[in-house]
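[Q] Does anyone have a clean structure-token version of this?
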Amino acid sequence: MRRTVSAILGTLSAAMALLIALPTISYQNLTWVIQMLLGEFSWLVTLLGTLAVGLGVSPRRKSSLGVTLGTFGALMSVVPFFQVRRATRMNDDAMRKTLGECYDREIPPELRMRIAQRRWSVETSLGGRLFSNNHHCELDRDVVYRSTPQRTLMLDVYRPTAPPPYGDLYPAVVTVHGGAWKYGNKGEVFAAHHRYLAGLGYTVFDIQYRFSTEVRWGDALDDVRAAVAWVRRYAPAYRIDPARVALLGRSAGGHLALLAAYSALAPSEVAAVVAIYPPTDLRLWISIPNTEVTEFIGGTTTEVAVDYDAASPTEYVRDGLPPTMLITGYRDDLVAPAHVELLANKLASTDTPVVTLRVPWARHGFDAFLSGLGSQIVQYDIDRFLAWSLYNVNHRAQDDG
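[A] Here you go.
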């Protein structure tokens, strides 16, 4: 029995380790999700491999197959943990270079107590953050913020129940979901993250926008702008400071968040933007008809070149843009890291504060679960970036003065 169990566990761990090591096989099915999750929870694969080895080395019922495959699985799956130190060092350097060596002193003490205290912990890996008291918030669903010829657009509001860590008003975070500009919805898998942010003291507005199957890129951008304007208009009803509204988006939503923050909005309308694995220059993709990008823009680069320019956040880089955090995974082959690196390099020549977080083992969508390894690593710095941008004591004192 021990030999059989060892062989089964060894086979499972080896197969899972291979999925971690291989490039993303397909984005058309669950393979992508499985590979992403295995990379984020690789410690489970390591545990399976270790168990296989432990059971297989029994003197009486030794399983060479279990030991061999288990050893392979354990060694291959532990690679992300060896990369953690490098990732945390790079990201910490990026934060301090942009925000200052002592940037954490500009965060209110009460908020410093609420945000993540460590970049990674066993408790969080086992789901501790999901059950934290900090997640307590009130949820208003399906609040209409805009009516369009195609459909009525709604948002969900995650309202903090705890008092603001500083002052009498809350900052707001407007979140824009991904989905290749043609699917997805508010809520879904990132609802837990919205609750987490609300627990820290941010009122979160999770919005809908129109898709490429309904309109073209400019209309989707207008929806995001309209959402920001709506939040600022109704700020008193939600006890929000209209001068402290941030945009946060992932993938296609990250693209729209950057575009809204950089293009036509007045600088004072958005106080910060966080873009996670965002497309930043739509001209980087091969322009083939009937793909997500060409449907969104309305043609290929040779047909509507001006629109590709206008729809690329890199075209709007200049001094005075809102503080920006860019996040990418080195193993993201859907939205290549080159998108983030290109925008980061262009921003570096301006006075716009930009922090770039890089996660060596992470794939597209890696932050879908708060307990994941990469999600924990970047959340530590997201917490501090938002706190520095929206709760900065020095900035608040200057504004009040």
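[Q] Thanks! Anything notable?
[A] Strands lie at 137-147, 152-160, 170-176, 203-207, 240-250, 272-276, 324-329, 354-359.
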